[in-house]
Each structure stands twice: as C-alpha cells, then as structure tokens.
Design brief:
Belongs to the aldehyde dehydrogenase family. GO terms for molecular function: methylmalonate-semialdehyde dehydrogenase (acylating, NAD) activity. The chain has 498 residues and is α/β, with parallel strands linked by helices. The protein folds into 2 domains: 3-250 and 451-478, 3-Layer(aba) Sandwich (Aldehyde Dehydrogenase, Chain A, domain 1), CATH 3.40.605; 253-407 and 411-436, Aldehyde Dehydrogenase, Chain A, domain 2. The protein is built from 16 helices and 23 strands. It has helices at 41-58, 63-79, 81-92, 96-113, 116-119, 155-166, 181-192, 207-215, 228-240, 263-275, 298-306, 326-341, 377-380, 396-405, 419-428, 464-470, and strands spanning 3-4, 7-9, 12-14, 21-25, 32-37, 124-129, 132-140, 143-147, 170-174, 200-202, 219-225, 244-248, 253-257, 285-291, 345-348, 367-370, 387-393, 408-409, 411-415, 433-436, 452-453, 456-457, 472-480. The strands form 6 sheets. It has a 7-stranded mixed β-sheet with strand order 15-16-17-14-13-19-20, sandwiched between helices. A 6-stranded mixed β-sheet has the order 10-9-8-11-12-22, sandwiched between helices. A 3-stranded mixed β-sheet has the order 1-5-4, with no helix packed on it. The longest helix is centred in the first third of the chain and has 18 residues, at 41-58.
Length: 498
C-alpha cells in the first residue's frame, strides 16, 4: 500500500481528511512512493490555532532553553544523517553524496541557531542624557511561515524553522509536494529533540495552502525559495497583506575564466558546478565566460563533460541523478533544441540520454553550448538542468559588463591567479555572492545567503544575522530612575536564575 504522508499539527502526526492527494514519484523509475495531501481548511485553521497558542508560552521560554533544544536537534540530525540522506535521495533522485551534502548544510544552520543567545543580544548606552539610560531588546514576532522547493528538501527547511523558532517564534512549514518525506523526517526528529507542542506545524498541499499562509493576518512573515514568477507572486501578495517577505528566486550564475587561471582547476570545477545535482540548484554555474585566450579551453571542457555519467542514487559511480519530473525533463530538452535553433553550437548534447535498467527515468545528460549570445533564450532564461553555456569576451571589463547587465544576481565566480583582477571583479560586480577560484560561493551560516536583483525579493536574507533580524523586532527602552527612591535593604545571600 502506498504511504500517505501525514500532516504535523499540534504536536501530532495525523492523517489528513483531504479528498485531494498528490502522487510522490521516484524520478528514476516513475514509481509512486507516497501520496501527499492538500490540507483542508479545517486542518490549516487547526495548525494556525496551535501555533498561536504555542507562541504565548514559547516566547517566554528562556533563550538558553531554546538554544539547548537546537543543540539536541543538531545532535539527532547528525546521528541520523545518512538515514535522512537515503530518504532524500529516494524521492529527489540525488546521488547519495549529494543528498548527504544537502543534509549537512542544513545541520550547519541548526548549529548556528544553537548560538541564539549571543545573536539576540541588544544594545545599551548609559547616560544618553543626565541620569537616563537607553537599551534595546530583540523580541520574537509570532507565527512565521515558510514555503520550500523540491531541490533541497533538507537544507532549505532547515534554513527557516530552526532560526525562527530559536528566536522565540512558532512556525508553519509548507514543503514541496514533490518530496515531502524528508521534511516529515526532519519534523519527527525535532519532536524527539524535545520541541514543545505547537512550535512547528507541517502542512502539505499546493497553491491553496500557500495562499493560506500568504493571506492569514496572524502569520507575520513568509520565507520562500523557488522560481522567479512564483517568488514575485509570493512577494507581492505577502507584502500587500502587510507581511515581512523574503522570496529567493532564480539565477543565471556566471563563471569568469581568465587566461592566467589554472586550466585543470577551471575544467574540474566547471564540470561539477554546472551539471552537479542535474543543474537543479539556484547556485549552479550555467554560464562560462571565457576571457581572451582562455576560449581555447572549451574543447577540453567539452571532453570532460562527455565523461560525466548520470545514474541512480544507489550507484556510487553516478555523477548526478535524474531531473525531478518528466515535465522538467521536457522543458530542459526543449530549451536545448531552442538553443540549437538560435544558432548556438551544441558541443555536447544530453537529450535522449539512456541509463541502463532505468528506461523511465527523467535523464538529461551533460550539455554544453559554445558561441552563445546574450540575446539567446538559453542565456536569458534559467534552464535548471545540466546545461552549460559558453560566451567569449576579450577583456575582464567586458566580462564585468556582461554579468552586470544580466537581470539575475544570485552568485558568480572568477578563476584567476591575479589578485588585482580578482579584487576588481569582486568590487565592481553587481551580484550578491562572489567566489574567487571557488565555483559555487554559498556562504556558511554565520554569514547570510545574499542574492541580488531578480534573484531575491525582500530586504533581509536567509540565515546569519539577517535572518535573526527578519524573525524578530527591536524594542528600545529609555529609562530614568531617581536616586531619592533608593531605600536601604538587607543583603540577599542567594542566587536566583529562574
């Protein structure tokens, strides 16, 4: 019998009463491995009521207790690391190594949340005026909401609810309906870590359930990761409803290759950064910008890409897995065809890729275009597949102008042995996350994930100090006490920390 994914409401995993269920399929076989419900209105209302009730006591919980909850949670996540990765691989198709990386990056954010006491410290100035002091407190907002995508079902939920809850809020999570088993396991372990009833709710579904989070006044914030059109929808509707919104969207990430770079390092890094995870990540390198004589390296890059073999997650030799759905495969292959029609030179063609024993998988092989122009659709649109486009320019200045003219600004990198070129690039480039001889510059959790332009809609980014600000409000107090009110009293010989 097919597993039916439960909802998590008021501290309990319960089967939904919904009449609408969505199949969860193995992208390597099309086998239905589970069914996920579209939560009913009553179930969404119950989740909200539970979150609101829990907030009243959770916000008063000492910050040290919240930190210890996160310590216990990260320990459990580490203990069950490989188990979570197996669940993740089975429903996303990611290779086991890639799935383990997904889980680990989430664990790092939980470890960051365990430092919440120092992150919530306010500010104090004594004697702002004669006999008057001012100080600020960082306080939670209330119920927060999050909507997460299919491509990182462990990392991105863990970007959101641990920090929000550590700040004293409660949280309603709506994971992707395409891979809900991983977030369900994350919630189970959160309960095992000692999370109080109601601080986390997990609702499943589609647009109706997202709109509930967007429209319900009691939900104060919305965190989202996904495509550009949906991110724009989330941002507009959420802010129209007077909510705080952080909406992470698409990308077109460029890697600039200078002729003085280490050629083999460039080729090795470009291969992994472009087709790893089947290109289904917003920080994938999808454009290689070859400067000057570096353009001669493209033939060697093409040969390296031809040697990359996708396959099932259980096969240790698989470089990456299938795309998430037949629809995703169809779109990527149609974009490849469009690139050919527009005149780009297709050096490596990943269409109609076959994996022995898995004839129904959503396979797309490594694909590499040369001679790409900025007006081509394969350059202008996010393909979200294992497709790399090469553009040639003569100078670093041309490369910077090209990248800055692109409407996306999630990540970029430069490979060079020249420090002055690297500094010029990092200083002048209009992109939020920059790598120098690093292809995918995703920051560690004590920094923030800082996409720019059409890659992000909002003001405060995920994790790091910015996330703490996103999930809290600052209260400033100005106080005066009169010395004439001091009365003598006897000594207190005990220490009371309760």
């Amino acid at each position: 019998m097919t597993t039916r994914v439960p909802l998590f409401i008021a501290g309990e995993f319960t089967q939904s009463n919904s009449q609408q269920w969505i199949d969860v399929t193995n992208p390597a076989t099309q086998e239905v491995i589970a069914q996920v419900p579209c939560a009913t209105q009553d179930e969404m209302d119950a989740a909200l009521a539970s979150a609101e009730k829990a907030f009243q006591s959770w916000k008063e919980t000492p910050v040290s207790e919240r930190a210890r909850l996160m310590m216990r949670y990260q320990a459990l996540l580490k203990e069950h690391h490989d188990e979570i990765a197996e669940i993740l691989a089975s429903e996303t198709g990611k290779t086991f190594e890639d799935a383990k990386g997904d889980v680990w990056r989430g664990i790092e954010v939980v470890e960051h949340a365990a430092n919440i006491p120092s992150l919530l410290m306010g500010e104090t100035v004594e004697n702002v005026a004669r006999g008057i002091d001012s100080y600020s407190y960082t306080q939670p907002l209330g119920v927060c909401g999050g909507v997460t995508p299919f491509n990182f079902p462990a990392m991105i939920p863990l970007w959101m609810f641990p920090l929000a809850i550590a700040c004293g809020n409660t949280f309603i999570l709506k994971p992707s309906e395409q891979d809900p088993l991983t977030p369900t396991r994350l919630a189970e372990l959160f309960v095992e870590a000692g999370a109080p009833e109601g601080v986390l709710q997990v609702l499943h579904g589609g647009k109706e359930q997202v709109d509930f989070i967007l429209d319900t006044p009691a939900i104060r914030t919305i965190s989202f990761v996904g495509s550009v059109p949906v991110a724009q929808y989330i941002y507009r509707r959420g802010t129209d409803n007077m909510k705080r919104v952080q909406a992470f969207a698409g990308a077109k990430n460029h890697c600039v290759i200078m002729p003085d770079a280490n050629k083999q390092q460039v080729i090795n890094n470009l291969v992994g950064a472009s087709v790893g995870a089947a290109g289904q990540r917003c920080m994938a390198i999808s454009v290689a910008v070859f400067v000057g004589k570096a353009k001669a390296w493209q033939s060697e890059l093409a040969e390296a890409l031809k040697g990359v073999k996708p396959g099932p997650w259980q096969d240790k030799n698989s470089a990456y897995g299938p795309l998430i759905s037949p629809q995703a495969k169809q779109r990527v292959e149609s974009m490849i065809s469009k690139g050919e029609q527009e005149g780009a030179q297709l050096l490596v063609d990943g269409r109609d890729y076959k994996v022995e024993g898995y004839p129904d998988g959503n396979w797309v092989g490594p694909t590499f275009f040369s001679g790409v122009k900025p007006n081509m659709s394969i350059y202008q649109e996010e393909i979200f597949g294992p497709v790399l486009c090469a553009i040639e320019v003569d100078t670093l200045e041309e490369a910077i102008a090209l990248v800055n003219a692109n409407p996306f600004g999630n990540g970029t990198s430069i490979f060079t042995s020249n420090g002055a070129a690297a500094r010029k690039y990092q200083h002048e480039i209009e992109v939020g996350q920059v790598g120098i001889n690093i292809p995918i510059p995703v920051p560690l959790p004590f920094f923030s994930f800082t996409g720019w332009k059409n890659s992000f809609f909002g003001d405060l980014h995920a994790y790091g100090k910015q996330a703490v600000r996103f999930y809290t409000e600052t209260k400033t107090i100005t106080a005066r006490w009169f010395e004439s009110d001091i009365e003598a009293s006897g000594p207190n010989m005990s220490i009371d920390l309760k």
